Amino acid sequence: MKSLSNKKxxxxxxxxxxxxxxxxxxxxxxxxxxxxAATGAAIGALAGAVIGYSxxxxxxxxxxxxxxxxxxxxxxxxxxxxxDKQQAEFERQLAEERRANDIEIxxxxxxxxxxxxxxxxxxxxxxxxxxxxxxxTLDKVADILSRYERTTxxxxxxxxxxxxxxxxxxxxxxxxxxxxxxxxDARVDSRRxxxxxxxxxxxxxxxxxxxxxxxxxxxxxxxxPDKDIQ
Length: 230
Prior knowledge:
Layout: H1 2-21, H2 31-55, H3 60-93, H4 95-99, E1 103-107, E2 113-118, H5 119-122, H6 135-147, E3 151-158, H7 165-185, E4 193-197, H8 210-216, E5 218-225
Parallel strand pairs: 3-4
Antiparallel strand pairs: 1-2, 2-5, 3-5
């Protein structure tokens, strides 16, 4: 009987190590986080097996492995899982805007989400007043942010290089604040919202063409998860 239980323990340990080695997509920008989650599950499974075996020679090792694996995986995957769910909601709710290239949603390597809003659809030229048609999109964003409270949102305004540095800096700040005020009115806690303007300092395309300048006129939202999400 002891030999059989030992074999179970060896099998569970082997499965746990295989789990730790698995990453579903080698191109996933967050594969390191998911690797940690798998490793947490593996360690939990092994610890659970040892505890189960010491307390119940008739099968506690396997039961303990399952419990321990679930707990270990949850601890390792907390932030990643939370942001996976939130990203899926943004992609579903903003599918229409994404198809029209009005909004881009990107997952960064540090688990942050970045939402880029084209200023051509959100603001009139040389204005910091939100276009009425764009408020419907911000309503969707506000609804999701309100339900995922374990994040800080950094709202960043950018401009092209037409005009003076000082003017573009002020315009970028005013646009970022317009988005913040709207989200606050839509019941997103203002303490979670931070704004900044970067003027023309961080272009993502060449300002020599109108197409490039249009890409540079944008507002970005960085959605940053709390560090202690479990």
